[in-house]
Write a structure and sequence with these properties.
The complex is a heterodimer. Chain A is mostly helical. Chain A contains 14 helices and 2 strands; from the N terminus they run H-H-H-H-E-E-H-H-H-H-H-H-H-H-H-H. Classes of the chains: A mainly alpha, B alpha/beta. At the A-B interface, helix 3, helix 4, helix 6, helix 7 and helix 8 of A face helix 1 and helix 10 of B.
Chain lengths: 323, 389
């Protein structure tokens, strides 16, 4: 089977799984993205992934998704209570993970896996599996260090002091695969999106936006409430509220269409004020909207959307005058 | 009167998340936090507020672990910790109450713990995460099942068979009055044995195969029943797929040609079956004779089977159904109180062996409503099934 066929088949299986999970399909697939990080998994680890990442909105999954995933054709039981995701499927899932979530999420999952092994020693009687899991974590967190560790082991394996040759070769493949994977990931993404007829950039923006939409609504709401209290008159309050309502609706509209400004490369300065609960600076909004404008121009959306953003910036300017 | 303090917004989020995780908290508990803050508690530091939330909302150590981890996820960073005493118009607890000893910062602890070094094992050198950027997010390691330990314990405590037994140590008021009235003199008081819950329970739990994803959940349920159910005796045995195998399949001859045959026409011909082994341990390594288990623990006891009955793989196997019915017929000769708890919700039983078993045996989903109904059936409440055995 060619590699393109294998990817195609894996994708079809994932679609099937998504369909099987019904209304939870998309979130269930996202859980599968998370599960793909470890080389093998058990029911306990999958449960921890769900309760740490899929118990609160925006993505909420019921308990039953765990058995649906483990007993689905995506996984095969390789030992009592130990499951493996088929390699081709795992590649596609890992691609999905990196496309849908940022690097922080990968770090979160890897750290969770590390802490789980550290606290519960689920594979204490299978040293090679335990090391394989730990090395995988290290590889996701710091690929260079993982390579160095493997190089150290290679010497010991050749001296016959460490694990079996087969284990070493398998791990070397895993590390190399992941390195290659990182390289070709972008290209794969492009191909998949081309097949689907979607601009990869836009798709990526949409994905990111969906993740942050709840946060955004919350910020918009905090912003509105904190500012209204500063206004001196009732008339102004009403006018201000109307503007804000409109603005909020518009911005939520953009989120649905385009993606939140958190996508942007220099998002750090946007993240910082979000942590302040006391309010949200309007200057930041304007900067953010300008960024969205640039992004839209870059991607090339319809002129109507562009005009709407212009309108939103004007409203913000108005709001600033009240202040 | 002191004005109610404005709670930091993340506390509402924390409250909601805890409720989502089955914490028994409501508006009263949220109000209790507000009252405590108004009284000056929890203002001295981030840790003080975390401990206050734990004290008010967490009812066990496990809940405390969950609450602490979620608090650390949601609470703003130390640098951004800007809730002010003036804003809330409250007096800090530290001024009025003795200062609590310095609490270790959970975040630092988590960080320290997340950068360990493994031991050299099996000739493989340790893997270290030193100098590697790891996530600082605190994680929850306490499982969150559809049923909490408390819910299981509370429900199973309703399974009662109170009988006066043992030494006479409790005052019998009516007996004393009757005796004194009868004799006409002040005699010594009449004592009677104390009432004890003599309800006995036999748990038969399916293990391995399609039950693997439910092991932890089933273990949690069984542990809660054993530890907190307050029953006279709780015996626990395990099986794989069906408790007894090898029912006479001659009865299926007349059903040949049907793809998914129902056993209704041959139901009276199925003979009770107690041949086979159960296991005393969850790894199915210590076999015990099924007949012995039933003889020792099932007579007059409530019997609960926990199994997906083929629903997890959504399969219909007539041989499994036959064995199950044959076993249930045998079980009826030992006890008339039995129920089946299925870890899968009812919508998953459709088109599988489970749907057929549920026509003959009271089967409930292993959730709050399901176990309440199961306990009611064990207490003698009526439950209508389509085709009783």
């Amino acid at each position: 089977m060619t590699s393109a066929m294998a990817i195609d088949l894996a994708q079809r299986r994932l679609n099937e799984f998504q369909k099987q999970c019904g209304k939870y399909g998309k979130a269930a697939l996202h859980l599968a993205y998370h599960a793909a990080l470890s080389v093998a998994l058990n029911a306990e680890l999958l449960h921890l992934l769900r309760i740490n990442f899929f118990l609160d909105p925006p993505e909420v999954l019921p308990y039953t998704v765990e058995f649906e995933f483990l007993l689905s054709p995506l996984c095969r039981e390789i030992d009592e209570g130990l499951y493996e995701i088929e390699p081709e499927i795992r590649d596609v899932l890992l691609a999905g993970l990196t496309q849908t979530y940022d690097a922080q999420r990968t770090r979160d999952i890897a750290t969770l896996l590390w802490q789980y092994i550290d606290h519960y020693s689920p594979w204490a009687d299978r040293v090679e599996l335990e090391r394989a899991q730990q090395l995988t974590v290290l590889n996701f967190l710091n690929p260079k260090k993982a390579q160095q560790w493997l190089a150290t082991v290679e010497t010991e394996v050749s001296r016959g002091q460490a694990a079996t040759r087969e284990w070493f070769v398998a791990m070397q493949e895993e590390i190399e695969n992941q390195a290659q994977f990182r390289e070709i990931n972008k290209e794969k993404t492009r191909i998949i999106f081309e097949l689907e007829g979607v601009d990869p950039k836009l798709k990526s923006a949409e994905n990111l936006l969906r993740r942050h939409s709840t946060k955004f609504a919350e910020i918009a709401s905090n912003f509105a409430l904190s500012d209204i209290s500063d206004l001196p008159t009732r008339r102004k309050t009403i006018e201000f509220q109307e503007s804000l309502d409109w603005l909020r609706a518009e911005l939520e509209n953009y989120i649905e269409r385009v993606g939140l400004f958190l996508v942007l490369p220099d998002r750090e300065y946007l993240r910082e004020p979000m942590q302040h609960r006391s309010g949200f600076s309007s200057d930041i909004y304007i900067k953010a909207l300008n960024y969205v404008k640039e992004l839209i121009l870059d991607i090339g959306l319809e002129p109507e959307v562009y005009q709407e953003i212009e309108g939103a910036v004007n409203v913000l300017n108005k709001i600033l005058k009240y202040k | 009167m002191t004005e109610a303090p404005t709670l930091p917004p993340f506390l509402w989020q924390l409250f909601q998340r805890l409720r989502r995780r089955g914490f028994a908290i409501g508006p009263m508990e949220y109000e209790a936090l507000r009252d405590a803050l108004r009284a000056g508690f929890g203002w001295s530091s981030r840790e003080a507020l975390r401990d206050l939330c734990n004290s008010l909302w967490a009812k066990s150590r496990r809940e405390q672990d969950v609450s602490s981890a979620l608090f650390e996820q949601l609470a703003p960073d130390v640098d951004d910790w800007h809730y002010s005493l003036e804003e809330a118009d409250a007096t800090p607890a530290s001024e009025n109450f003795p200062t609590t000893p310095e609490q270790p910062d959970l975040k630092d602890k988590t960080l320290d713990e997340s950068i360990p070094k493994t031991q050299s094992r099996g000739g493989l050198p340790p893997v270290s995460l030193a100098d590697v950027q790891v996530s600082e997010r605190p994680f929850v390691f306490v499982p969150q099942f559809p049923l909490t330990y408390r819910e299981v314990a509370q429900t199973w405590r309703c399974l009662r068979r109170p009988i006066r037994t043992g030494a006479a140590i409790e005052l019998d008021i009516e007996g004393t009055i009757a005796r004194r009235s009868r004799l006409g003199v002040a005699t010594t008081v009449v004592l009677q044995p104390r009432r004890r819950n003599m309800a006995r329970l036999l748990l038969l739990v399916d293990r391995q195969g399609s039950m693997d994803p439910f092991h932890q959940f089933c273990d949690e349920v069984c542990t809660a029943i054993q530890q907190a159910g307050r029953l006279e005796e709780t015996a626990l045995c395990y099986f794989h797929n069906v408790p007894a195998e090898g029912a006479d399949d001659q009865v299926l001859e007349s059903l040949k040609g049907q793809l998914f045959p129902s056993l209704d026409p041959v139901l009276p011909q199925i003979q009770p079956l107690i041949d086979g082994y159960l296991y005393a341990d969850p790894n199915l390594l210590s076999p015990v004779l099924l007949a012995d288990v039933l003889q020792s623990h099932a007579i007059g006891a409530a019997v609960v089977l926990i199994s997906d009955a083929g629903a997890a793989r959504n399969r219909y196997r007539v041989s499994r159904l036959l064995d199950t019915i044959a076993f249930m017929k045998a079980l009826r000769t030992y006890s008339s109180q039995y129920v089946w708890l299925n870890p899968l919700p009812k919508q998953y039983w459709l088109n599988s062996t489970a749907a057929q078993v549920a026509r003959h045996v009271p089967m409930f989903a292993l959730d709050r409503d399901g176990i309440q109904r199961a306990v009611n059936v064990l207490r003698g409440h009526q439950h209508i099934i389509e085709k009783p055995l």
